[in-house]
Amino acid sequence: MKRMIILSFFLFLVIGCQSKENNIIIKEVSSGLITLQVKVEKVEVSKVQVHTELVYTGDNSIEIIHTDPLVVTVLGDRSNRPEFVVSSVGIEKILDKNEVYSYDKDKLINILPEDKVLYTQTVLTIDGEQKIIDLDIDLDEF
Which domain of life, per UniProt (predicted)? Predict the structure, then answer.
């Protein structure tokens, strides 16, 4: 009986810890008809996987020109917003109604104890007008 209680307690701890390690945060912000969506999944204690995408909600197709990467991701503390470094190479893409567009591969990022925020930014040109969309994710939400 004592072994059964110890085994049950051990399984309870293992299952409880596993569910806490695989937390997922999904955040989005819209600017006009473009929505930046960022999914952050904690895959280890000090490692996250980041998936980014744009969602176009307009009725007519549009052409966008974007940087490489499409969405820049940078870890940092809360005191200073980092500078984003992107390639100015223009990548053209036609977005259709309700299209979800993901250009970048998912990123696996190591988190240091001083990292508190995941800063993201996309820079697009739509009809000759530059649009910058920022989204910050508080890592304390894990």
Answer: Bacteria
Question: For residue 5, is pLDDT > 60?
Answer: no
Q: How many domains in the chain?
A: 1
Secondary structure of residue 106 in the 3-state scheme: coil
Answer whether 0.70 is exceeded by the pTM. Answer: yes
CATH code, 128? 2.60.40.1230
Within a domain: residue 6?
no
Domain assignment present for residue 8? The answer is no
Q: How far apart are CA 30 and CA 123, in angstroms?
A: 13
Provide the residue range defining the domain that includes 126.
23-141
Distance from C-alpha of 54 to C-alpha of 96, rounded to nearest angstrom: 12
Q: Is the pLDDT of residue 12 over 50?
A: no
Q: Backbone phi, then psi, for 10, in 5-degree steps?
A: -60, -45
Token pair belonging to 49? 């996987």
Q: Which pLDDT does position 14 carry in this prediction?
A: 42
